[in-house]
Amino acid sequence: MSPTQPSPSRRAVLGAALTAPAALACASASATRAAVQDAAERRVPGRPTLVGSANALPGMQANYAALVEGAEPLDIALEVVKRVEADADDRSVGLGGLPNEDGVVQLDAAVMHGPTHNSGAVAAIENILHPCEVARLVMERTDHCLIVGQGAYRFARSHGHPHTELLTESTREIWMRWKESMSERDDRLPPPPAAKDDKQGGTVRVDGEEVAITDLFHTKRPTGTIHCSALGQNGDVACTTTTSGLAWKIPGRVGDSPIIGAGLYCDQEAGSAGSTGRGESAILANASFAIVELLRQGAQPVDAGLEVLRRITRQAQRSSAWQAGLVDASGLPSFQVRFYVLGLDGKVAGVTMYDDERSFSVADPENGARHEPLVALHPARK
Hints:
Blueprint: H1 10-42, E1 49-52, H2 57-68, H3 73-85, E2 106-113, E3 118-126, H4 131-141, E4 146-148, H5 149-158, H6 169-181, E5 203-206, E6 209-212, E7 225-231, E8 237-243, E9 264-267, E10 271-277, H7 279-285, H8 287-296, H9 301-319, E11 337-343, E12 348-354, E13 359-364, E14 368-373, E15 375-378
Parallel strand pairs: 3-4, 12-15
Antiparallel strand pairs: 1-7, 1-13, 2-3, 2-8, 5-6, 7-8, 9-10, 10-11, 11-12, 13-14
């Protein structure tokens, strides 16, 4: 300060200090009002919509009419995924799901409710048929977001969920054959093939796709998940993801499905998103949250999903410095991951890392429940 320039008075300094926070508060309030106004403009009541993974289609066909009639979107999303949780012939979720390396089926599930911005989840829960319902209980009947392991099991039992053996006999046989095929340096021997073209016992259904049993041990190790996001008649959004997780995983491993912001996320000001595929990549990218934030900024659902797939591609390339198997010979990710995206206006997208000619499920007023092709970031792997 120049010697000839007068010093500010104490009153002036205190006045500036007191008025600055007020100005910031006013600016923050204006930004909040603008965000709420923007969300209100994007919200389109009267467009009930469902979007999710390919294996969600039967549940959508059975429950979309109720959404059209005004049912709560979270109720419908749960009914959609519960159908697969209870399907012993689908090895990706719930009853009959492929177990961990010890032969124990451990389940993860989460729910999120847009209007209240609340969530609930369970992880590594055993012997409970509908973990998505337990996740909802965590949201509605506790102050927690996530309960795991034996604590989650006891919590479910205390709320009346029965103990259920989830490892079916056919899935136990598949698990045993996996154990017998893992090493030539132990004393286990796999059964001989019944015929040269038998592929050691035919196929099973995983994520809505028929997969050769022997491929489950090597090239198509299942990640097994179902996701559903729902937009109600009144414009409310909600979502759920449920899974038996990565087949043959280390006991206690938790993927992205019960992690809010990774395996699913919704915000009443922006939209909803969920994922299937390699859970670790979705966790590291905070993927579903990132997609919803891109929706908030004005991105279309397909563009938001593809942008996060690009981020995951770059992240996998960096991570390959310590885990080389995360990328293939071309330097692209060696794994698959998919996202299902729902905007407040009812626009949807299903995107995938690689074009494998798979589809996603959608139900809307124009065309009802159906499969649509996924949009791929990268062409099919050779």
